[in-house]
Design goal:
The protein is mostly beta strands and about 120 residues long. It contains 2 helices and 8 strands; from the N terminus they run E-H-E-E-E-E-H-E-E-E. InterPro entries: B3_DNA-bd, DNA-bd_pseudobarrel_sf.
Length: about 120
Amino acid sequence: MEVLNKELKPTDIQHRFSFPSRSLQHIDFAGEFSADLRVKDSSGELRVIRCKKRHGHHAKPELSRGWRRYVTDYELRVGDRVVLLAEEDHILGSQYRIEAKRRIIMFGQEAWGDLPRAN
């Protein structure tokens, strides 16, 4: 199940990845303001990425700790797309799968190609 699908902006690359609050329903914060998400990336590596929600009335979520490492490992840039899917892998122990995509234009047609890990 798709939790979020977002085209990256400069702040997402340089600092933290914020996303629409409607995605909060798919994340178990267990009464806290942050949750460590166990995420499998497209190379099969298990990552722990912290998801925080802001205090107060507008609890917009953001990925923080672990996010910048993912940006670096996949050499993400503005305009790329990140997709987070709720998908359990009992062997790896992950709860989510994360995909990085880049816009490709071939023969005048736009498509999104999967990005491999850069290093």
